[in-house]
Protein 1
Amino acid sequence: MAGGAAEQRRLAAVVEGWLGRPVLIVGDAMLDEWRFAESDRLCREAPAPVLTLRRRISAAGGAANTAVNVATLGGRAVLVAPVGADVAGDELHDCLDRAGVWDRTVNQPGRPTPVKRRMLAGNQILLREDSGDPDDALDDDGVARLLTALDCATEELRAAGGEAPTLVVCDYGLGALPAPVRAWLVAHRERYATVALDAHDLADWRGLAPTVVTPSFAEATRLLARAAGARPAPGVELHLDHPDGDPADGPSELTVGVSPGGAGRTGLGATGEPTPGEGRVAMTGNGLTVTGTGVTVNATVGEGVDRAVLAESRLAELRAHTGADVVAVTLDTDGAVVGGADGEPRRSHSTPVPASHAVGAGDAYLAAMTLALAADAPLPTAAQLAQLAATVTVSDTGTCVCRREDLFDALGAPGDGAVHRALVGTDELATLVEEHRRAGRAIVFTNGCFDVLHRGHVRYLEQARALGDLLVVAVNSDGSVRRLKGPDRPVNPVEDRIALLAALACVDHVVVFEEDSPAGLIETVRPDVYVKGGDYPPEMVPEAPLVRRLGGQVRTLGYVPDRSTSAIIDRIRSHGHEPQPDTSLTSKPS
């Protein structure tokens, strides 16, 4: 989807750059349950289908799905949220564990975990059952434990990453963020380098000064209407009906029409009397002035009503009312409109898909936008990656999760294994290994001088790579080689040695170590398999006790006969000492 090889590399570099970025997610966590059924007849009692359950899937939802997306995109995600002490809560914990999210949720006995249960037949959603009452407020003890978890998780992330973490607030009105928690987050804003806010009611978060807010058109319109005091606009007004039963945790279904008295000027018939309050939005005929409260616009009904145009015209006001540096108004099937301090709106587009494919796409958008901004990506790049993350997740029914490899594939990049830099430092290696382990990959580790790379080395490394999913090669520094091999070694400096190793397809990561022993790196990597070259048994390997203590196994691989660095160096030196023919008497052409 990028416009060329250079663009692909630029975007892929941002995705690579946010790897291991520490992110704290707080808010309304829920469980998404998908029940897939078949139906081939109607029941006798009523004209309703008889369903036979074939498959059931549970997934993290809400703030929990945002945390899952942060983790699968490569961030270091920590979730703080109240979760019920119930079966749904247990399933939610399992979902977080599988995704590699640091689960710092707070048990709330007596307060059920919110659940959305969807029943489908032929990939068509037939019904949705919601459980979990937003009126079940946290008691004082629950609030206190949630604040303690927030404080501890913030310090934990700072200690692990050595930098101020990023904060993502997911407030879907289900009661996880009562006033004391909001006040705490506002008061401790300086502890977070980047703050992203996704809230149904943005007015509740005055003072947070977020880096980015990602309201839907509904939420943005509601905020503008409240700021305007719901004053009626002169002239013809379009109004939007917001169903009274619309849930507080998802996109709204809206209708658009013309208020009485406006039909003669727009050619549209009246659809009913406008009513004050939360249930209606009124806009002028050009679609640019909001005077009521409510949700979204169906841009296919009513000339002059264009959600993107309306959102673009009000980005500055939205930034002023939210205190955000960046406002990204999401327009579901119409993409998004993004604006920053430069006042230049950016429009992105998406592909319309069935509603059952788009559940949680906003969470993927929020996760990618946050990671990109936290990695200091320019706003146009962050907006592009966020829309891409949301778009590539909607290919099938279920709760949307975007993985790093999904983004690389969409960018036309060769994939995570080829995009990463093979040459890494010790700290970066620790982060990479953690991500590989979260993905369930078996890590193979070996070390050596690799002074003169030869056929024996290549075969040895290929055999080592075959023992797992990726191979980490630790290379002795020049000083370490001199201490081990003598003052005339290495023949090739470490820069040349690691460059050759990194070019091998079987080698995933190369790291240099200064010590004589790789024990420190072994403790960092905790390899599933540690490989050494030689014909001796594994028990003779000095590092074997350490590897086994860390839960790994030790393997020794024999060398290719008559292939060794010392033998090659001896042959080169012997050729250098052979007598050269005397050419002094050889006649030269005239």
Protein 2
Amino acid sequence: MSHEIAWTPREVKALREAQHLSQRAFANRLGYAHSTVANWEKTTRSTADLHHETREVLGRELGRLSDDLRERFDRLLNVASSNLGAGSASRTSTLLGSLHVNDSPLRYSPPVDVVDDVRTFLAASGRVFLLRGAAGTGKSHLTHYLSHSLSDQADFQLLTVSNWDLAAVDIAVEILRYAAISRGHDALLTLEQHAQSLSRPCVVVIDGISSHDEFAIVGRQVDAILRQVTTSSLRFLLTVRTPPAVETTAYPLLHATLFKPAEQARSGRTELMPWPLEKARRRWDEARGADVSPFGCLPAGIQHLVRTPVYMRLALTASLETAERDLNAYALLDRCVRTIISSGNTDPELAIPALTELARKQGYLPSTISSSNGLENRPSSPVPPLLASTLVHGPPHGRVEFTHEVLREFFLSTYIADKVYEYGRSVVAVTTLNELAARASTSGSVRSVLDLIIQRLDDRAPDLLEYVATVPTSSVSTTVPALMAMADGSRFARPEVLRGVAKRAEQERSIELCRALLSSAVLHKALGLGRTRWLLALLREFGTNLWSEITGFIERTFDAGDAYSLLDAADSSDGDEAVFFARHFYLFFSETTSETLAAFIGHPNWRVRAALASGISDERVPVDTRTMDLVDQLVHDADYKVRAAIAPTVPSAPAAAAKRYLTTLLADENWYVRERMLRGLESLGPGHPRRGLVHAALEVMSNDPAWRRCPRHILPSWQRLEILHNSELAVASTTAHGDDGRALLTVLRESRTGYLALPQSIQRTVMERAQRSDSWLVRHELAGTADYSQGAEDDRNPRLSRERFRRARGHRAVQIALDMRDIDDAIAVARSCAQAGADYIEIGDPLIKEVGISAIEQVKAAVPTASVVAEMMSADWGRDQVVLAAQTGADVVLLIGPATTASVSAAVEAGQRLGVPILLDTPVTTSQRWVTDMERVGVDGFTITTNIDLGIGNTTALDAARTLRSWTQLPVAVSGGFSATDDSAFTNPDWDILIVGRSVADATDPASAASRILELAHSTERHS
């Protein structure tokens, strides 16, 4: 029998006080503020809020424990069987439900194009979505929106860099902990195990990356996770604050798996930008109250600033009315902050010092300031009660934080700017700004602080900024460019200051300072008539490296008189200089005919005329009578290289003219011109509104007897167009030349890599044609296509080729080089090596020269499951080398190192289209810059090859590999006559792929020789 205890009100009160005392004692032991506990004790708090905050507290406290104690805790909870997707979704749902809703009248509106990109990302093969944007453009809001609105398509985790101790964080552990999964003995292996059971994408959002150092830590660990966890269901969405931009090439798997939206195909990243002016007008007028001025009444400067969502939100919250003058970002923030504080019945003169001190403790301080005045020992001032939803808030861990990083940076910049003002014209002031500018070049947060400092000092002490801009000790690579980037609308950037800085940029050859100056609108007037000489000096000094900045400056600031003055001062007899003006002719000529333009069209240097052809493809060139007259002359130019340059632009001409020109070029006396014309038609897919040009071209080719003698390397381009457009004339090329399957193979491969999205009718025709093909390579590709269409996540799928190859880094792989001359012997050795387990079979250059490109296909047919490397040792025609190798079955293409950047870039583009990684042979005299440039171009690995003619006098490849491997995280292959007796080579940690040739290929028992080398290589893998 139970008895209900009747508590008196006094007893209830005493019991609650005892509970609160115990809670506060516990919180005090953990280091949490009393205000945090008071927040927990509120009767209005929901269960979801408390659940989320409890998990936050436990997560932080567990992070302080040793690995063995965390593992014991996990085992006691028996959470090892949790589901990664379901656990992530559950916690994210709770987190989204407990997020503080800002009281701003500005309703959140997601960028539709970016949301669509993320939807595409979830269905595509890429595993990393890189979202960039400046402070306040809505990156965090967007990730919250995506996690909620796309929860029917994927599970999300919301991780934030600011919650981590980056020196000790293990992201694999954080992912598991988020889903309440035990880390196990090895967090990476545990994550791999749980990721394999995912039934749909699980997207790990890592928000708040604001510097190169933070991205380096995150990038390295994400790269390691992608290397270990191969299932495409585990994905990452990284938000990165810019400027400055981050580089991803140092993280091979991350870079290889970047999702590339159509509009950002080259960079593989999406950037949130400020709203267009009209959108900002609409958002402001929809959200403003009756006491707030309409958008049209705001000064132009404020209209520009509130295009960034965070500034509009603050301005609306502060009920900003029409200002008496334009405000820079600092002045706008200052006005908004003071208005918001005053509206909360708090004296701004008391609150602002406390908030400034809070920002000082949470932000970066230069050494000249942080080491002075004993500031770190000064007792903290309490932050007065403010409008917590607007300026600061106290999250569960008890630390008072600003509601947006822009606010913290505003108060921090106030503190630093005032210290610099105190220093005056001194070495300390310049040193402080130099240090800040250097840090700002790698940190978006510090960059924002520096910009605000410059704006505050411009109001208080413009003469001090003049001094910093002109004193010789100011850095021309960081500090002075940062000042010039803020020159427009400033007080310090007087004409004489700008002229002095421009002269210094020219004399000291600082491309960073030149770029900053060219972005300024006030420089044009300051330079006066001297602008012509200055621009030509930059053009001659920096060449193509500064073309885009120079043309941008001309477009923004030049009138017709300026353009003609610059053109008249140029040396048109100088080929490089004339190429620039010909390439950008549309900037310098009015609609009337010009003698100079006629000089370009008749210039003796073919590169000038080819540049003119390239310029016509620019979208800013109007399609008018004059332009078509230029096209007509270039189409009939005497030099085939110029005709080849204009050919790709023909499809964009008016229909009648385009048909006329393509007829001319497809009948050209040079097959290269004809081929370029075909490539120009490749962009006109089956659904393109101008696909009729393709049908016209096919008709021309079918009726031209010369095309019956079409060179073999051009034939696939012709047949590819026939296949994709399902033309009635599709039998023309096959009738004339037969069908060797290369075009069909190319279409199948492009479909598998995602380069082509075929309509169902075309897809069906392609499949039927492939089934009837006599080419075993086509049938082999068709089988892979069928597996992929059935949802099989085949590790050999060409979509994953780059990712798969880059995983060779840090492992031990063996590549057997068939540097032979007899194809039958090569096939026999290849079979033996494949049976022994060789990772790669290389078709050597001697075999390709002896037998021809068909050697690749014959070896691939003999060992279809092996990864075949084609040694295409050519320094030119990179694209064609890759296409030829891929069409005959190569899985990897090795190119010679001294190739030009343009050639390697074209090869990489073809490799990505056809799912073929590019391995690049490294020149003897290489440099770290060259390696970095090749990484940026997109190669997937490097080789160090020993010249056999040097014999015993040659430097060992392992010595060079050590240096090369320190410069790159891509796989490094070494070749140097290695055999099973080279013990030092197998224990050496400085290679990822060991290339072995004669010791296996010339062995009397290749299988045994290969087996022994593979055994040694794999047994020493731990040394790498």
Protein 3
Amino acid sequence: MFAGMNSGVAPSLAPQHMALIPSERLAEIQKEYFTEWAHLAANPQAIELKDRRFAGNAWQASWSKFIAASYLLNSKHLLALAKAVDTDEKTKVKILFTTEQMVDALSPSNFIATNPEVLENIISSQGQSIQNGIVNLLGDLKKGKVSQTDESAFELGKNIAMTEGQVVFRNALFELIQYKPLTETVFERPYLMVPPCINKYYILDLQPDNSVVRYMVEQGHTVFLVSWKNPDESMAQVTWDDYVGEGVIKAIEVAKEIGVTGQINVLGFCVGGTLVSTALAVLAARKKDWVASLTLLTTLLDFSDSGILDVFIDDSMVKLREESIGGQAGKFGMMSGLELGNTFSFLRPNDLVWNYVVENYLKGKSPPPFDLLYWNGDSTNLPGAMYCWYLRHTYLQNELIKPGKLTVCGEKIHLEKITVPAYIYASHDDHIVPWKSAYESTRILKGKNRFVLGASGHIAGVINPPAKNKRHYFENNALPKTADAWLSAAKDIKGSWWPNYAAWLKPFGGKKVKASKLFGNKKYKALEAAPGMYVKEKITTAV
């Protein structure tokens, strides 16, 4: 197959897939392919290599350029064949995803013999680059993942996750961190942040210049944050109900009591947003008006279109997980954070896998320090019981949006009973939470909602501090029925969306009061300095 990708042999799918392509469209693709191939063969040096994998000068040599150009041509038409398959949408997405994975893996840049930059490095280093690459490879095999950054460059609490605060509550599921005020006065209502339990919290507190936590403290909020425990085998039977009741609702209760206020403001990020919304539905069923406003960052409530993740989730896959780790066959286990992390990396294989394979192993280089990628590699496990419930009832059966269908913490879940004002943020290029799916939350939640769309992806779109003046965002205070209608009338604004959010949140903070120098209260005493104990727990390769 690799020979075909580089020699001009017409690309093809498996025979059963080719049979599903309408004959007229198949003929069009084949005609386009042979026309472009003839053009390439006649004048290979006229081809412009726009792909960044082939941007180096070494790729401009005639033979290397021909290899790269023929690969790109074959890739283009192989993907065209995959897109042309006439089948149901879910099968089509699976075929396209599998084809993309194969195409990316077979890039000539990924192999010593066909990467001229690698060959130049071997010659210039007298083979030292290959030796270094083998050392890097053996080290990564021990870790069970491809290294994306210099992990030795970071230490929690020293140069990452360093906003000053204290752990004021701890149970088996989470630690609650209260951060030190940076203003003389603060809003009377505390502000609680609930990150995803699938990753560590410090994506919201990387370094001072890109910390969401620090920014919100600087805006005058008394910030509390949930730091989830990294589960081990003893927690395999922990459920979604536990994360909602003993996690989110308990955190709301503690923050409210420490703040000596009837209500607080709550933010949920990704899965944290799904947990928070479920918790608010439970509180609504109990007639507890504990929350003044809700913020959802890149969160799914309606899982009708879950994007590329839908490729991995079907009934047979969920049943397999339920039987192996979810307790259905009497066996509970853990969903490995390493497996989850590697899966997410292969959603963007060129950026998060093959780029590092080439640099680390073939060229023998060590990756530079990068705070976001350090966080990305600091994986967490998930309890099997919780993970399987989440897969079945959200991604597979989409039952969270069905009024009264699910019972959580003893209460029937009705998301439409959430009537607090909500700020709903999505990222335009998010491959985990498609922005149009996030927009559906505007019709599910029944309060006064605002939707804002940021540029970039799932993480980079969120972590966009104003001082850097990067990217842009879209704003439209109207909420039409469709996401496309919203975007067509939205205003494109340069810079970070954070100030927009801070201005929206301000009225829900209540009056300003003198900032307290104390952490916790008589009931909830300061236990240890932030970042606390749970965030430092690492997983091993064997789960």
Protein 4
Amino acid sequence: MSTLRHRHPATGKAASDATRTFRRSAIALGVAAMLAAPAYAQEATATAQPDEATELDKVVVTGIRGSVYRAQDIKRDANTFVDSVTALDIGALPDRSVTETLSRIPGVTIDRFLSVGDPEHFSAEGGGVQVRGLTQVRSELNGRDSFSASGGRALSFQDVPSELMAGVDVYKNQTAEMIEGGLGGTVDLRTFMPLDFEESRLGVSFSANRGDFADEVKPSGSILYSNRWETGAGDFGILVDVAHSELATRTDGMFVRPFFNTANSDLDGDGTNEQLWLPRGADWRTLEYERERQGAYVALQWRPNENLELFATAFQSSYDELWYEDAIFVSNDPLQVRLDASQPYELDGNVFVSGRLRSNGDIPMGTDIRASHRESKTTDYSVGMKWAFSERTEFSTDLQFIKADTRALDSTVSLGVNVPYIDVDVGSGRPSIGVDEQFTANPANYYWGFTMDHRDDNEAEEVAWRADLKHSFDAGFVDSIQFGVRLTDRDATSVDTGYDWQPVFQTWMQGWALPAGALPGLDLDGTVNSSLVNLQTFDNFYRGDANTPGAFYAPVLSTALNFPQSYLDIHGAAIPYYTCCYGQITPRDLDDPQWRNTQGEKTTAGYFMLSFGSDEALFDGNVGVRVVRTENEADGFLVYPNLQFAPYLGAGESVPITASNSYTDVLPSLNLRWEFAPNLIARFAASKAIARPAFSDMQAYQQLSAAVRDGVTPDPGETVTPDDLDLTGSSTDNPYLEPMKANQFDLSLEWYFAPDKGGMAWVNFFYKDVEDYFRQQTELVPYPGVDGNEYDYLISRLVNIGTAKIQGAELGWNQFFDFLPAPFDGLGMSANYTYIDSSTEIPAGSNAVPIDTDGSTFDDLPADGLSKNSYNAAVFYEKGPWQVRLAYNWRSEYLLSVGPNGYNGGDGGIPWKLPVYSDSFGQLDGSIFYKVSDNVQIGLEMNNLNNAEQRTIMDQNGAGKRITSWYVNDRRYAATLRFTF
């Protein structure tokens, strides 16, 4: 690209910006960490080459100031819209996880849940990443593909060791050379290369991490060694970086369940029941979380001469995560709940505020142990070269192989206990919950309730090759022309058994599958008995700031983790107690083909880009087009119905199916930059972007179902006609999905008011016109019967439909206050704010329309994952040996999901599903470091200093919009020791 030539503000002469050259040289000498990764065009590290560095002596710019300087340079020199966080000190990315680092960047938000769309499980380190409200974010490692084998296309950023990172760049628009796929944006994780350093380097970091709620100390550490040699064969360098990190946290949560409009309560004793909105109940849980993260990175560089460079890298990140929770939950019929008028109660109109909830009979509750164990690994091998075979022409190429796998077990074993009543008070913030604790502390009142397992075993591999040719011109408006091609071949195998819920004893079994009367107790046989349960007292629940009972029996952790044997033991011990219909279970077999789906994808891309500029006008830019062909194939199964009254449809057999799809996208782009006044830069970008659907959404799997219509009662042995049947099918998969597309525009003004002291301010306006959204829809699709005829099934699946418009603005400001008198001249500040607005025109399928528990519907909902307002504010102090940082991150309310677990059902024949929002959330983090010597630094890193409470909100029409869950998590501290030689 053309480097914008900066003029001296006083003389107007072309001076190559001496202050920035000085600063770059200082950073290079101070930490030897200029991030000049191997130059391959499609990596999209669109920074200009620095001017020739002037030799300087004993100038050191490190730490916070050096990182801000470098991020500013990347933003100013980029040939499109880029924001960065850098770590010039080895192992010094400013957060304990890459996800939390991303949340510091304008326009980037993260959610604080273990998985997207699950509002019931909080995550300390954050999970999903959105750029400008969109989850369709492309992830890269050093400008090349990177992904996790979880059915999606992106890397799980929490899986990546932050200790290995040299920086994180977020591209919010694109150039033709960039790899397609980032509709919201592209996140590029950068690592160091050995020739970045002027001499040998050794960096060691060790931390002891403590969560004050989990009350556990876990270690983390990293070591980096880099060296280079000048030989007769040229410059050679090697870098080795390894990292290990462990974390333990605890989360306590409280829940008030959805409200139902019932007429079960006679409050005034007149013999007529009042119509009241009553909650199904309330529950609570404690979740213990442990994770172990390891990373290794090796890089080789060889520069035989100034015209040729070769490199090879190997990167591996592995993640082992275990969380387990003791949960107390209601499992009652919500339409039977009534308010006990003999006890004090409070109503807001006809909506419940506080009181004692009873039912017709006792209220069934569950006490479970749920354990989720996930292991994942991503491995990347890359080799490449850059060859300048003339002064103006250069060629680069690289070849990459990436392999990812994920294996997971989610296992739940539950007891049941039928309590006489539940006291609930939601009138003053967090709920107050009460039960008869003498009753719940008696193990004789419990029974074995159910088991449920879910397993995943996924693998994905990709081979990618690219080549680029660039020719530069000495003079004229055109600076360079650039061509490139990229080929990929990716295969993915997904095994997903679904959630296999199997009852042991349930109240609804009484009188037919079980004898009438009391349910069997805990002591079933010599193996399955009360020795497999423990009394959960919920010590220090919610840090003592909540009123909940603390005496429930629940299964021990081993009953969940010892699947499948523990499941077989429990269900086998229950067999003698059944009068009919139930017996030993058969766990789903991972080798059963019906749970397996294989997919393949090949892409062929080519691009042309022209870079131009005018020294006199201080203007440059690029224009280009990228054309990409995508070919998909999926192998799976079609499962036929099994209805005795309609044998012509099938008998439950599974038939292999293959689906293929292909499409071509033309992606033009334009980027302009103009320094219309000294240190005032205006930018404009326009491009077309795509985001392909996740592999998990393109599986070739469809299960067909048939049921007799209401009012039709066939005689035994009778065959009914298709007109008397409801033929349906439901899956979220559609192998014929095509990408979401967006026309996107950016316009910004950047003011570098103190370019040599990190001072800058900017405003950026953006607009995205998105089409072909992925949304669940219901439509008639013909499928063949075993008789050879086709029958129309009402199928619910993802389709491309609807449009959305997303617009907003980002404002930012960075400054060091060197002009203040000592000791305040070490102060600095960084702040940014993002505003996002959206409008959607997406027809919702019948199974995706939010419906209240009384059957009423809702007005249009906002786009999911989109906060209208978010901001970051950080205060720095860096003077002498001290580095101090306080950073606050906040985002406003956003829609999490419609009808997630706990907020959907079919009670009263109403397929209700409630919209659930994340409430606004802000977290304060900080760090203090002291440099003992040039080689040794000690510090304290802190997260969640404000003990932030995460809340979720459920929306109901008659009962109102209200908080439905509350979470509290650890304050986390890490005592850190760093050595650099």
